[in-house]
Write a structure and sequence with these properties.
With about 250 residues, this protein is mainly β. The chain has one domain: Porin. Helices cover about 10% and strands about 55% of the residues. The chain has an eight-stranded antiparallel barrel with strand order 1-3-4-5-6-8-9-10. It is elongated, with a radius of gyration of 22 Å.
Length: about 250
């Protein structure tokens, strides 16, 4: 199974400036940032003549995400949260009646842009909900075939690399655009945890199957992190101009 995509360089180079612009335009707000990590269950599914099925009978695999985010208040309860994550997404299947297993895994760098609404003030513990878009860039991957042992051959794992881009249109699109929905709880000390669901919009294998088929990814999981506050411009100026105590 192989996929591809071409996204103009203009779109690629606009991600980071957009994030920095959002942060800069709210430099007087109490901006927070910090690390985050989590796990999720991934599924690659296809639509065949209006019917959704998992790819080749594939099962969800447990995968992970590592990264961090920035929290930019847009008001008392509304927040913008751009971030960056390194993620692993995969799936596997067993052929019926055999111990032959086929699995694949795709690594990606994700840039989510999340808008959240808090049911409470930031300095208090509160629940929150959020929604946003995610730009994923696939950076690597592999497929493993686990052959069952026989009288003449031991059990063997055959690994092949996954390539992306128009040079190999049979496998994977280089990019994926998806929607992210979440709900969670934020402690007043900055620790937060959320449940998230991510649905891909990009057809990851156009023309890869005969007939009316399209392949898209989705996952759901748990992410936790810690936001520690940073001083805004006003606070830094006040701290700099604060007179030192006389001894």
């Amino acid at each position: 199974m192989k996929l591809y995509i071409v996204i103009p360089m203009k779109i690629q180079t606009s991600i980071l400036p957009a994030i920095l612009s959002c942060i800069s335009s709210h430099s007087h707000a109490q901006i927070s940032l910090g690390p985050a990590a989590g796990f999720h269950l991934t599924e690659y599914s296809f639509i065949a003549d209006g019917r959704k099925q998992s790819v080749s009978g594939a099962q969800r695999a447990v995968d992970y995400r590592l990264g961090g985010c920035v929290d930019v208040p847009l008001g008392e309860r509304l927040h913008l949260q751009p971030g960056i994550y390194y993620t692993s997404n995969g799936s596997y299947r067993y052929f019926a009646g055999t111990s032959y297993r086929y699995s694949f895994n795709i690594k990606a760098v994700e840039f989510p842009m999340l808008l959240t609404y808090s049911f409470g003030m930031k300095h208090q513990s509160h629940y929150f909900v959020g929604a946003g878009a995610v730009m994923s860039i696939h950076v690597g991957g592999h497929a493993d075939s686990l052959t069952p042992p026989s009288i003449h051959m031991p059990q063997e794992v055959i690994r092949t690399g996954i390539t992306f881009g128009p040079a190999n249109p049979a496998f994977a699109y280089k990019y994926n655009i998806s929607m992210l929905l979440c709900a969670g709880y934020h402690l007043k000390k900055g620790i937060w945890v959320r449940l998230n669901y991510q649905q891909g919009f990009t057809d990851l294998q156009p023309g890869g199957y005969p007939g009316n088929y399209s392949v898209r990814s989705n996952n759901f999981g748990l992410t936790a992190g810690w936001l520690f506050p940073t001083k805004n411009k006003k606070e830094r100026t006040e701290a700099k101009n604060k007179p030192k105590p006389a001894y």
